[in-house]
Design a protein that fits this description.
four-stranded antiparallel β-sheet, mainly beta
Length: 495
């Protein structure tokens, strides 16, 4: 009876396709990492046995290294009987990956970058820090950035800060306007139906309350006593800190830009510029003004336009133009300005199709204006290489899908082989692979890569690689790719 059970067990094992582990021996010509795969009779990769394994991960044999195969594919399924071939590559120690740069979003290089695509609004604090209201995925975020220390904090504006109807999905752009104002202690995010209050110290949410009465906000500003919201009906003054009172003030125009301190309010609309201390007084400014900001005492800054030529200017409270700064040819056009009230400094948000730039300008002792801080965001949906250089928009320039390299001489065979390399990514990271999918070089462990581009490098055996996630493009240099040597472990028969 015992013999019958043993025989039956053997038959069931054979029927199930289970194979005993098979020893596979192969020689290596040098030190390095080992990638090894099993290929079927048609040359298809059916099992990756090793992904850049160290040589100490193998058993040592008389004539090289030994590994085993259980006869299964990458999904753990037993493979049918037949002839299989085992081969791979030795990745030499000269193969190096270097991160070169963050491209097309300068904020990505700042410490603590929280990830965003576009600036919706901003404020300049008196110490020089910038508070940003930005579009992220799948919602919006608030962040404070310091020139010296990078991002000090960031806060995602989700259900706790915005009405559910204003939280974006991946495919949506902002459906309703969101605007930002700050005072000495808080940041205020204003929408059509609510105000969210956040601490300037750490970004934490202090409170969220209904506001606005359903009117679309056109502009907002704040001082320590009140939050002022301009809409088509005038200006709503919301008392601070509890947002528990609202008063409505008629205005001579529908202001699209406002700024205020404890004693002065300045505002602009397509009809002109008004300053209010006790009553509104219109200033005669020889330009179409789109943005205003209070500056040092009795001055203000504005973004103006004359015959479609945009510029930044400083004026006295009486309307006298003190100085004008015009963009250089080809530069983005200014659209919003915020200024210091204690020193000659202003921040300006500029744009052109596919680009945003935020700059902080400071006046030096000699009177000239210098760029104290600058960040640019470019649209990189069609990034790639143009004439061998990274470009945010490669247009119709054809991108290389793979690059072929001439390898160093193999000490075992004396041959100099060729190898074609392409880029690949998945949720585990990005890498260079052979045409049949064997991993050759690990580039990064990022799980959010969305697209890659490669180009042959300037030196022998080198490659340049670009990879994007939703917020920026990283540039890598990979060298020593001629130090990749083919390994052949021969045929394996599965019974």
């Amino acid at each position: 009876m015992k013999k019958i059970f043993i025989l039956l067990a053997a038959v069931l094992v054979a029927m199930s396709g289970v194979h005993a582990d098979i020893d596979i021996a192969f020689a290596v010509p040098d030190d390095g990492r080992i990638t090894l795969g099993v290929f079927d009779g048609a040359g298809r990769l059916v099992r990756t046995l090793h992904k850049l394994s160290r040589q100490e991960d193998f058993r040592i044999g008389l004539n090289g290294l030994i590994t085993t195969w259980d006869g299964k594919d990458d999904d753990g399924n037993p493979l049918p009987a037949g002839s299989y071939h085992v081969r791979g590559y030795l990745v030499g120690e000269d193969v190096k990956v270097s991160g070169e740069d963050f491209l097309f979003n300068d904020f990505a290089a700042d410490t603590g970058f929280p990830g965003f695509l576009r600036i919706l609004d901003f404020s300049l604090l008196e110490n020089g820090d910038i508070v940003l209201l930005a579009e992220s995925k799948p919602s919006f975020l608030l962040a404070r950035i310091s020139e010296e220390h990078g991002f000090l904090w960031s806060a995602t504006l989700g259900q706790s800060s915005l009405p559910a109807s204003e939280v974006m999905t991946d495919a949506e752009a902002p459906a309703l306007p969101l605007m930002l104002a700050t005072n000495g202690s808080s940041a205020f995010v204003v929408s059509m139906s609510s105000v969210g209050v956040h601490s300037l110290d750490d970004g934490s949410s202090i409170l969220s309350a209904p506001a606005g009465g359903g009117k679309t906000p056109l502009a907002v500003t704040a001082d320590d006593a009140a939050l002022l919201i301009s809409s088509d009906g005038g200006i709503t003054s919301v008392s601070l800190p509890l947002l528990d009172q609202e008063t409505f003030a008629p205005a001579p125009s529908s202001f699209t830009s406002v700024d205020a301190d404890a004693s002065t309010l300045i505002a602009s609309s397509p009809e002109g510029v008004w300053i209010r201390k006790e009553n509104f007084a219109k200033e005669e400014i020889p330009a179409m003004v789109v943005s205003v900001a209070l500056g040092t005492p009795d001055t203000f800054w504005f973004v103006g336009s004359v015959e479609r030529a945009d510029f930044v200017a400083q004026a006295t409270s009486g309307g006298e133009i003190l100085r004008t700064l015009r963009p250089a040819p080809g530069d983005p056009r200014p659209e919003k300005i915020r200024a210091s009230r204690t020193e000659e400094k202003f921040a300006v948000l500029e744009s052109q199709p596919g680009l945003q730039r935020l700059r902080v300008m400071t006046r030096a002792e000699g009177g000239e204006w210098t760029i104290g801080w600058e960040r640019t965001i470019r649209d990189f949906l069609r990034f790639g290489f143009v004439d061998g250089k990274p470009a945010a928009d490669a247009g119709d320039t054809k991108q290389a899908g793979e690059v072929r390299f001439h390898l160093n001489e193999n000490p075992l065979t004396g041959q100099k082989d060729f190898l074609t390399i392409r880029a690949a990514f998945d949720k585990s990271g990005s890498r260079l692979v052979s045409p049949d999918g064997l991993p050759l070089v690990e580039v990064s462990n990022r799980n959010d890569v969305s697209r890659m581009a490669i180009h042959r490098g300037d030196s022998t055996g080198s490659l340049r690689l670009l990879q994007a996630n939703g917020f920026f493009v990283e540039e890598f240099s990979i060298t020593g790719l001629d130090d990749l040597l083919p390994l052949d472990a021969g045929d394996v028969e599965l019974p």
